[in-house]
Amino acid sequence: MIGRIVRLGRSGCDVLEALGRASLFLAQSAVGIPSREGCYLWLRQMHFVGVLSLAIVLVSGLFIGMVLALQGYTILVDFGAEQALGQMVSLSLLRELSPVVAALLFAGRAGSALTAEIGLMKATEQLTSMEMIGVDPLRRIVAPRLWAGFVALPMLTIGFSVIGIYGGYLVGVEWLGVFEGSYWSSMQANVDFFDDVGNGMVKSLVFALVVTWIAVYQGYDLVPTSEGISRATTRTVVYASLAVLGLDFVLTAVMFGGFS
Amino acid sequence: MKRSKTMELGVGLFMLAGILGLLFLGLRVSGLTFTAPSDTFQLEANFANIGSLKPRARVTMSGVTVGRVTAIELDTEWYDARVILELDAELEGQLPRDTTASILTAGLLGEQYIGLSVGGDPEMLAAGDTIRDTQSAIVLEELIQQFVSNMVND
């Protein structure tokens, strides 16, 4: 009995300790004025996590927009309200689907790669060697990746929304024959730039921070063996996805729950 | 470190595409326009019951949108709803003093909006004035209640 309580307390302390380490890690790597070299390192990471993720994000966005239009049309047409298709597609994309799905894809495509890369650097003692020659690995390795993720995911989310709305247009207007004018005008009449687009962007910034933070921290903190790397990569995807979905509920409740 | 021009170009294009995408979302999807906020003026109107009118609802005249509802608050002096309307500046000094404001519904289940119809008074409403002649929203429950009580009386 006592042993069980002790174990519970110890695991609680472990969780708190990990949280503290992760927060310190975030604070230490996010601050500091980037040098010219740092900007270039950031640019390289932007290329990797942003530009190279563009294809998967855009293709998913196109298909999700198309599916939304198809499903929405079959429901709305029963009420004779198929003119509201543009509103339905754009609001569901801007408020929920773009930030969440882009963040999940980002966690799978870029987050796991970040963890594996930093983890292998740790396992092969590159990080220790950097410290030996007086280069701070937090600023040299972690900071550019953290900032690149923080900038790239909101950009990817915008791309997701735009292509999703275009996909909805393709299916709704070109295929199912919704009037083009009402597709755009129902959208313009009901989408507010600050409430809908702005809140979606805020969500996306929060997700970007959380996903990239989890990814780089898991890489930096893992057990430096091949098994440790594989575990950490899995943990990145699992934790990041759960964090995104959980935070999405909280943010939605705050933004659109109408508690004001 | 080896620098690669194509990579820099790729990131630049990526950022540019993101900004253009945001612009598209602003202009095409949410219908933002770059009009100065100064070319509107405000009027007030008191309604006994606003139904489910919401801020940002349309204000129309003969079906043409001429403004928006900016705020709705409870007037504690008369215990009715004070609705603040923001209208296009070209209507300033053009609306007669006996203009009627009524709360209408778009379609059977649609959203509620305000319809203005002009009267014949030679004096005009200035910015900040109150529209006296108003018609409240039609609340379906009240209609049914009236209908039922009429049936009982007959």
From TrEMBL, chain A:
It is found in: Cell inner membrane. Keywords: Cell inner membrane, Cell membrane, Membrane, Transmembrane, Transmembrane helix, Transport. InterPro entries: ABC_MlaE_roteobac (IPR003453), MlaE_Permease (IPR053408), Permease_MalE (IPR030802). It comes from the Bacteria. The keyword Transport applies. It is a multi-pass membrane protein. The chain crosses the membrane at residues 51-77, 97-120, 146-169, 200-217, 237-259. The keyword Transmembrane helix applies. The complex is composed of two ATP-binding proteins (MlaF), two transmembrane proteins (MlaE), two cytoplasmic solute-binding proteins (MlaB) and six periplasmic solute-binding proteins (MlaD). NCBIfam families: MlaE family lipid ABC transporter permease subunit, perm_MlaE_1. Belongs to the MlaE permease family. Part of the ABC transporter complex MlaFEDB, which is involved in a phospholipid transport pathway that maintains lipid asymmetry in the outer membrane by retrograde trafficking of phospholipids from the outer membrane to the inner membrane. Probably responsible for the translocation of the substrate across the membrane. This is Intermembrane phospholipid transport system permease protein MlaE.
TrEMBL record, chain B:
It comes from Billgrantia antri. Transmembrane segments: none annotated. It comes from the Bacteria. This is Outer membrane lipid asymmetry maintenance protein MlaD. Residues 42-118 form the Mce/MlaD domain. Signal peptide: none annotated. Pfam families: MlaD. InterPro entries: ABC_MlaD (IPR030970), Mce/MlaD (IPR003399), MlaD_Phospholipid_Transporter (IPR052336).
